[in-house]
Design a protein that fits this description.
Elements (H helix, E strand, L loop, with lengths): L4 H13 L3 E5 L2 E5 L7 E6 L4 E5 L2 H17 L4 H44 L1
Antiparallel strand pairs: 1-2, 2-3, 3-4
Helix pairs in contact: 2-3
């Protein structure tokens, strides 16, 4: 059930016009940023009547800390090197996702402000 299909379509069209790769997944918009950056999900908060950008940083930070912990507690060797490489990969992915998501967060914030202003005028 899509409660905010009109707003979803407007936001999706605006993001596609700006060059983002956007897919609609149920009631969420999945935005692919490319490179090492993880995809970002935009969800509609019905109570606040606004869109929220979800980068899922908590999940990535948990994986990063787990790989780092296992790498540091493991004996020196190829396993430790592999786990350290994976930890560095997750760290770079986390940083790139945050850097690439800033313009998207600003655009969604502007969209929320514009749609809120249009609702007040009506």
């Amino acid at each position: 059930m899509k409660l905010n299909n009109g707003l979803n379509n407007k936001l999706k069209a605006e993001l596609v016009a700006l060059g983002y790769q956007v897919e609609e997944r149920g009631n969420k918009l999945k935005v692919k940023l490319g490179g090492l950056a993880n995809p970002i999900y935009i969800e509609h908060d019905i109570c606040r009547n606004r869109f929220i950008v979800n980068t899922r940083e908590i999940i990535n930070a948990v994986f990063l800390s787990a790989f780092l912990f296992f790498a540091l507690t493991n004996d020196a060797g190829w396993k430790q090197a592999l786990l350290l490489c994976m930890a560095v990969f997750y760290l770079l992915s986390l940083v790139f996702t945050e850097l690439k998501s800033q313009p998207l967060k600003q655009r969604v914030s502007l969209f929320n402000r514009d749609s809120c202003a249009q609702n007040k005028r009506q």
